[in-house]
Specification:
By secondary structure, the protein is an alpha/beta fold. The chain has helices spanning about 5-15, 20-40, 45-60, 65-80, 110-120, 140-150, 160-175, 195-205, 220-235, 250-260, 280-290, 295-305, 305-320, 325-335, 340-345, 355-360, 365-375, 380-385, 390-400, 405-425, 430-440, and strands at about 95-100, 125-130, 150-155, 180-185, 210-215, 240, 265-270, 275-280. The longest helix is centred in the C-terminal third of the chain and has 22 residues, at about 405-425. The structure holds guanosine-5'-triphosphate (GTP) and magnesium ion.
Length: about 450
């Protein structure tokens, strides 16, 4: 996700020796400056970052270690703007009301669904409100999302005024004892007075705890400019950067909070509902430095994993009893955790590797579709006890799944190997084996890099 930025940092840190001189430091910061500007980091932020890195490095004597520390702490400073971090619940009332704003197509409606998903996995009762009456299909779009993620929605087809919708939604949320109300609003092609007036009106009448501005990261520096205008005109408390998955430069995430003066709270990293990441400066810096984010990974896992089930699966794996039903369950759970790409970048030392695994799409991969078809053609007994599957059963399953016998054999063999591997990994030293295996898959030499310069 932060691949290109991480590479820039890595290259520059590598240029500074264990102990070095001022000239080397100057050269390193000049190089870093160039690559940050190329990645679309705002020029003022770049300048401030470089000044801070130089100053802090010199304080501790120029060398790789002190440069790395200076870079880390300067980055955290730059990413930290005054205000809340992550999702913050109201301390005034049991209901937290959030107003979602942004330009047309920036990702407000999708992000409303993603935030609802994020909160739902944290056991919050969420209501989304469809206050976009501008676009014909807008209400329908939010309805579909709400249905998909099984979250309640408030809409009123007889109401023409978005402010009234927002008010009624807030009333429903209070009466229904919801924890969070997310109000989706209409976007415009560009900032205009009518839009601002409408948002101000909604803001006044529902008095939200926070106003989020959804910025499309693909608009580069414009994202920073429009966020600033929204901040000046209606006041915003947080920025959410959407479509970061499509942003090959990525620098806007570094400078937007610094330039707008409002914290970046979340980033959208895909079209699906789990594809939202909380943006916490120290954790992000750890990922930017290629050192992963173990805490974040554990949190993500805790939100979707049922602990009892996890123990049961581990027991089965250890005993070699892992079956096809378990496999499907695990697959569903992984899907809830979000894209592989983001998961892998959270594992220390794995950010740069396992290319194939990274791009795996659990919904659309042909391989997974074939495996699912195959499992669906099995009898309940076969799913429970994979060893039952003999030649005639294989033929029947192949026919049912529309696969060739060769394909069925291949998948069954893979499953058998995977079970064996899992059994081994579940034992002592398992994690080391896994890292070794992944590093081989990624085709990298020299084993697992443990972050930059370590
Ligand atoms: N790849 C990717 N696509 C996204 C992301 N967020 C939103 N999108 C896509 O962007 C498009 C627009 O998203 P919407 O949520 O409809 O945007 P909106 O701001 O509500 O649009 P209007 O209501 O028309 O103003 C959709 O096709 C989304 O799937 C993201 O993080 N990554
Ligand atoms: Mg919308």
């Amino acid at each position: 996700m932060f691949d290109s930025l991480t590479n820039s940092f890595k290259a520059v840190v590598g240029k500074i020796r264990y102990k070095d001189d001022e000239r080397a430091l100057k050269k390193a910061t000049t190089d870093l400056k160039k690559s940050l500007l190329k990645s679309d980091v705002h020029h003022k932020t770049t300048k401030d970052l470089m000044t801070s890195v130089e100053l802090k490095t010199k304080q501790n004597g120029i060398g790789q270690e002190s440069f790395l520390k200076a870079l880390q702490s300067s980055l955290i400073d730059i990413l930290t703007a005054n205000g809340n971090q992550g999702f913050v619940y109201s301390n005034k009332s049991p209901l937290t009301t959030i107003l979602m704003t942004g330009l047309q197509g920036s990702g407000k409606t999708t992000t409303t669904g993603k935030l609802a998903t994020y909160l739902k996995t944290r056991n919050k009762k969420v209501l989304v409100a469809a206050a976009d009456l501008q676009r014909l299909a807008a209400v329908e779009q939010l309805k579909q999302i709400a249905e998909q993620i099984e979250v309640d929605i408030f809409y009123d087809e007889n109401e023409q005024n978005p402010t009234n919708i927002a008010k009624k939604a807030k009333q429903k949320a209070q009466e229904g004892q919801y924890d969070v109300l997310l109000i989706d609003t209409a976007g415009r092609l560009a900032i205009d007075d009518e839009l601002m007036g409408q948002l101000e009106d909604i803001k006044k009448s529902v008095n939200p705890d926070e106003v989020f501005y959804v910025a499309d990261s693909l608009t580069g520096h414009d994202a920073t400019k429009t966020a600033t205008t929204f901040k000046d005109k209606i006041g915003i408390d947080g920025v959410i950067l959407s479509k970061y998955d499509g942003d090959t430069k990525g620098g806007v995430a570094i400078s937007i909070a610094h330039q707008v003066g409002v914290p970046l709270r979340f980033i959208g990293i895909g079209e699906k509902m789990p594809d939202l990441e909380v943006f916490l400066p120290d954790r992000i810096v750890s990922r930017l430095m290629g050192a992963g984010d173990v805490e974040g990974l554990a949190e993500k896992a805790a939100a979707v994993i049922d602990e009892k089930k996890a123990k049961e699966v581990t027991r089965k794996i250890k005993k070699g009893e892992f079956n096809f039903n378990d496999f499907l369950e695990q697959l569903e759970m992984m899907k809830k955790m979000g894209s592989m790409k983001s998961l892998i970048s959270m594992i220390p030392g794995m950010g740069q590797m396992a290319g194939q695994l990274k791009n795996m799409d659990l919904d659309n991969s042909g391989e997974i579709k074939r495996i699912k078809a195959l499992i669906c053609s099995m009898t309940p007994k076969e799913k429970e006890t994979p060893t039952l599957i003999n030649l005639s059963r294989k033929r029947r399953i192949a026919k049912g799944a529309g696969l060739s016998e060769v394909q069925v054999n291949k998948i069954l063999k893979q499953f058998k190997n995977a079970s064996k591997m899992a059994k081994k990994l579940a034992g002592k030293g398992g994690m080391k084996d896994m890292q070794k295996m992944l590093s081989q898959m990624g085709g990298q030499q020299g084993g697992v890099p443990q972050g930059i310069g370590r």
